[in-house]
Every structure is written in structure tokens, then in C-alpha cells.
Amino acid sequence: MSEVTHIPIFPLALLPLPGELVPLHIFEPRYRQLLQDVEINDIHFGIYFSHESNEQKIGSLMKLESVIKRYPGGEADIIVKCEDIFSMGTLSRTFKSKTYPGGDVRFWNLEQNVFPGHELYDLFLSYLRQRNINQHLTVFNLYQIAYELSLDVGDRYKFLTTPEEKREAFILKRVIFQMHILLQELRCKDNYHLN
Question: Is residue 183 one of the residues assigned to a domain?
Fold first, then answer.
């Protein structure tokens, strides 16, 4: 982990994974101020995982990708991208002289080009085919597989707090489970006939 850094914080019950694109609707005045600062100064901010299960106080380091829409009242729809995970030290009500929160964090400096072994990768491609997704432009890394599975926040938290050497096994179990669910859905469709 890196040294302590003070960054703007946006507490949400979200836990984006490295590389994941996330849409946000910005409407509160303090977070509209954060968006303005992010745009003007090209800075990163943190989404702190504001959830009772977050015992390890982790969050996601985010970078603004694009502003999709601006509304007359100052609200905006934006897309942000997760670039790393951090551990939170202290969360402050304000960041420097701003109205939005800030926090002292340590970045994990995760290596995003962690590619899974053949067993997981082949199974994941089979899962995509079951979902009729046959074209993809890239080779999936472990984090991309995790967010393509649409893990709930509990599983995202477990995935990130699992030791690195066990994360692939964690995702393998989730792919197997998702494939089982898809198979059950197909079987149910065959059992019901509309009249």
C-alpha cells in the first residue's frame, strides 16, 4: 500500500471494481461542487463504500470519464471509471475549504492486468455464450470478469477483501453459480407454455 493521501470523498453504497465504468447522477450542491473541481482540476475522487458491512473501510478511486448530460438546475449525469481501491483512514466532513467530504486514504495500487487461468477463462466464455454474448473486443482480466458477473455489493466486498491468491477461486465459484442459475432459467422456460 501507498502512503496516506488526502482526497475528495463521495460516500455511496456502491463498490466499483477496478476498470469498471459507473453512471452517477449528481444533484446535491456539495457534489455538484465536487464535479466542478474534478472537471477544472482533473483530479480523482473516492467513492467510499458506505455500508454497514464495510469493516475494512475500503472504497474505490474514481476518475471522471465524461459528462453525459447537464440539467438547467445544475444537476448532471456522469460516467466515472474505477482506477484503484483504497483503505480509508479518517473521513472528514469537508475536504479542505470545500463543502464535500474528504478522507485520508492509502491506495492499494492494484495490478489490473491480472489474467485468470484457463479453467476460469474458458468457463467465463461459456457463461457469456449462455447469455448470447458472442462478440467481445478484449481479453478479460479478473476484475472485468468480476463486474461482468453483476456481483452484488456483498460479493464485491468479499472479492476485494479475499487474499489476492484466492480471488480467482472466488470468481470461479461465482461463475459456476451464475451458470447454474442460467440453466435453471432455461429449464423453467421449457416447463411453462403460454396458451
Answer: yes
